[in-house]
Recover the amino acids of this structure.
């Protein structure tokens, strides 16, 4: 076995997850285009619909986005009148993000999107609903030691813990 087999792109778990994520996000695009949203704006709105009012810093943590990425997303949502941003009157270092009436109306218009995406992604190979709810991720990448697909040797268990997900490689 070639010692460099392990560093081939097709043998990288991270790349397989990245590619899968990009493909799923592509499924969202036409559905989000109807509402003038990008995927990043959509996930920001998902948090806003849950919280209605949240500190900028907390929103960034929930989305795993730094302020340099989150700021332009929120500026666009504010220009669309879906949210408002303002400094906390007790501590001007804290920026609060709040859902507007127009943002609340949009919530009613997008409830079909998760269901539509599940339908678009449903295949015999991967049950995305079980994946999301803590199922196992079937990866189509090769084990550098055996040359066989990892899906034959490796399972990744995804478990929801509160509002976050943990990933565990199973033997």
């Amino acid at each position: 076995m070639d010692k460099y087999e392990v560093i081939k792109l097709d043998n990288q778990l991270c790349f397989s997850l990245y590619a899968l994520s990009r493909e799923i996000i592509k499924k969202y695009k036409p559905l989000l285009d109807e509402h003038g949203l990008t995927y990043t704006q959509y996930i920001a709105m998902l948090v806003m619909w849950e919280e209605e009012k949240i500190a900028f810093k907390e929103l960034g943590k929930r989305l795993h986005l730094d302020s340099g990425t989150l700021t332009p997303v929120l500026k666009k949502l504010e220009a669309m009148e879906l949210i408002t941003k303002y400094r906390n009157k007790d501590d001007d270092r804290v920026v609060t993000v709040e859902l507007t009436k127009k943002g609340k109306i949009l919530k009613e218009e997008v409830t079909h999107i998760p269901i539509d995406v599940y339908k678009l992604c449903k295949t015999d190979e991967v049950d995305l609903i079980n994946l999301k709810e803590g199922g196992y991720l079937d990866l189509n990448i090769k084990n550098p030691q055996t040359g066989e697909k990892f899906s034959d040797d490796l399972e990744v268990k995804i478990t929801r813990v509160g509002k976050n997900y943990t990933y565990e490689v199973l033997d």
Notes: The beta strands are 53-55, 83-87, 95-99, 136-137, 155-161, 164-170. The chain is about 50% helix and 15% strand.
